[in-house]
Amino acid sequence: MLPQVKILMVEDSSTDAELSMWELKKAGIEPSVLRVETKPDFLQSLKTYIPDLILSDFSMPHFDGLSALKLSRELTPEIPFIFVSGTLGEENAIESLKRGATDYVLKTNLARLPSAVERALREKSERAERKKIEQDLNETRERFSLFMRYLPGLAFIKDADRRYRFVNTAWESFTEKSSHEVLGRTDAELWPEFDAMTGNSDRRAIEKDKPVQMVETFQKRGNEFSFLVHKFNIPDATGHPALIGGVAIDFTERVRAEEKIERLSKIQAFLSRINAAIVRIRNREELLHEACRIAVDLGGFNLAWVGMLDKEHQELRPSVWVGHDDGYITKLRRSIQPDKPESFGIIGRAIHEKRPIVVNDIAKDPRVIYAKEALQRGFRAFVCLPLLIEGEAIGAILLYSTEIGVFDQEEMRLLAELAGDVSFALEYINKQEQLDYFAYYDPLTGLPNRSLFHNRLTQSLHARGGEKRLIATVLLDLARFRQVNETLGRNAGDQLLREVGARLLRSNDTVARIGVDMFGLKLRGASTVSEVNRSVEAIVRACFTEPFVLGDKKLRVACRAGIALYPGDGADADAILRNAEAALRRSRHSADHIVFYAPEMNARVAEALAIETRLRHAIERREFVLHYQPKLSLASGRITGAEALIRWQDPDHGLIPPGYFIPVLEDTGMIGEVGRWVVEQAFVDMHIWPTLVNNGPRIAVNVSAIQLQSKDFVNQMIEVIQRGGNLPGRLELEITESAVMRNVEDSIHKLSILRGMAVTVAIDDFGTGYSSLSYLRKLPLDALKIDQSFVSGLTSGGEASSIVAAIIALGHSLKLKVVAEGVETEEQANALKLLGCDEVQGYLYGKPMPAVEIAKLLSKN
């Protein structure tokens, strides 16, 4: 793969530009593209963007390609210039090459673009190498200067007196000073406020024998920028330090992102601690003081105080406070007039409007009454969170920070939750109902307990009415929780439960702790079991994909889920919970980590046993037949093969499709015997087409995962092939990608042996499994089959077309044939042909048919 190539594209069509870039990426070229349409933009880009390559349309409304070529040859003759046009005639092509164009590519033949680009870049590189050999020492220094100038990071060179001798473009861009303004001058002359900081690191760089690294921060237009700076001495010919070299990498955004994550983590931590305090503390003053203390100690705020509203005197009185005060609180006691909320500034407005109000810059907000006093104490921003009980404001929590702009939307969401939780606790304390809280909430996690979950589930069932959508009750059980307690300790187990509860709450608003290591969720809105399953899978992934950090340990935790659905699995909350627990118990003995309860399960088991008995008789009586569905080449329209599809000719029920009995064959292990018969019968049917035996189509046979995993699979196939006449190249095995990926190395070994006997191998239903591309490259494959779910959506727009195109491109890049199945319309066939698909099968070309009928069709073909 080529390294990233900077491309300047002169193109007025964004679609054509994207198609060109897609061709380059497909060929392993990683382009960085700047597209322009006008002459001024082109000239500016030549100066500032410094492309590796120029791609240009020939005819455009604002700027023609020959003009761009002329300017390019005059200003940047070393940069390759390739025309990519749909209107370039032979005369224009010759003329453009005479004027200096490197190459030209027609838009109707973009497949040639990657090779043209690689050749142009290769020739450019070769020219540079020749020039390098021919150049003397001054030219070498010039190249080094250019390298330093256009280094992405800020680069500079100072002499021993710390006077600037060189600065690069990135340095000029950041400082907004040209090299002419700074060369020969020092930091003391240019930025005296930073001289002490840079001077110290400059001296260290000269004194050290190896590069020094430090973080330096600079103010620019009121914003702080952080740079990771590497400084090093550059010796003279005698080996003595003569110059100071430096490279500075801007990692401001990373610092800001890390600070934001750290800030939100602190808010989450102190919110969790306050929730724990709400459960533990029953005294109002003690609770509010603890909330303020946690806000300062864990939340990182400099001052936190709570004011309670005295309605009789219309006065807000500071009740408790923690942090840097210095007499500030005593100035805040002031009356609040209901009809004049502005009389107490921000606090009055927040209480009057019953909503949080943020001041992200005290110095610039005229609503702040005591701005001067706040600024004197280092406060730069604050938030006022009203405390509401039964819709009435009873006070407010105020949190102060020394940072401007610290309260963003995410932080405010958490702080609003904090105010709501404190308000909730105060409401229960005021009503002396904290015992009720313990009766309905889990004190460890703060989540509803089983009793409250049962009540809420009952309310949801009653409120459902005639709604047709399902209500799903999901019980999650943590795997190996006892081992966590035994090996890491009870505190670690408690921390894990709190973390799991918190993560579940991000995905679902109705979460409860049902048992020691069991959580309950309630899902609404799904109309099918599949939708419920997808929702639960998403919740499990969101909660359990990332490891849990317990102290200094990282722990990955798995879970199992049992699901009961209303109304099918029970008429009330008791029955639903009981059946969800039954499904959860079954999940512990199941290969699936998500198990649904179903009252008809016993009936299904009985039905499966009956089908199993009938299938055993069917094997003995040879009641199976093969039907064949033709495959066609899109290029020639001729039949190239056929897929053998099993049918059960049941004497009582007629012809039965495979979806009814294949799962039972797999569950009972009979699939091995039936699968072997399918291959044997396919060879028999081939021989009833005598004129086609030596030049007939390939016959594809499906192989199940159970067959492939069998130790005797290869030997059985070899025996059947030899007994069937060993028609070279006539047998193809179709295996789903999920079956292959169960044991990749074993699959590679077995399939390689069969490939040695001229058996071809195709991956069936490609795109629906989880193939690893690194393993896909190693597998002995001949073809990929695109699943019909993608083909059906091919002509309706959306992502299906992109997926099909990607699969075809992937298959061809691996030198594999690509077959699309389930083709039912001419539109689908035309789209596949345009995308380069090799073969197709589907009802458009023929339904599965008996061996005699396919023989007639093959004769006509």
- The radius of gyration over CA amounts to 37 Å
Low-confidence stretches: none
The total of beta strands comes to 33
Query: Reading side by side through the largest sheet, how are the strands ordered?
Result: 24-25-27-28-29-30-31-32
Separate helix tally: 33
Query: What is the CA–CA distance across the termini?
Result: 44 Å
Helix fraction by DSSP (H/I, runs of at least 4)? 40-55%
Main sheet specs:
8 strands, mixed, barrel
Structural class: alpha/beta
Oligomeric state of this protein? single chain
Concise description?
The protein contains 33 helices and 33 strands.
Topology:
Elements: E1 5-10, H1 14-26, E2 31-36, H2 39-48, E3 53-56, H3 65-75, E4 81-85, H4 90-98, E5 103-106, H5 113-134, H6 137-149, E6 154-159, E7 164-167, H7 169-175, H8 179-182, H9 187-190, H10 195-207, E8 212-220, E9 223-235, E10 241-250, H11 252-280, H12 284-297, E11 303-310, E12 315-323, E13 334-335, H13 345-353, E14 357-359, H14 371-376, E15 381-389, E16 392-401, H15 409-430, H16 434-440, H17 450-464, E17 471-478, H18 481-488, H19 490-507, E18 511-513, E19 518-524, H20 529-544, E20 548-550, E21 553-555, E22 559-566, H21 573-587, E23 594-596, H22 601-621, E24 624-633, E25 639-650, E26 654-656, H23 658-668, H24 671-686, E27 698-703, H25 705-709, H26 713-723, E28 731-736, H27 737-741, H28 744-755, E29 760-766, H29 773-778, E30 783-786, H30 788-792, H31 799-813, E31 817-820, H32 826-835, E32 839-840, E33 849-850, H33 851-860
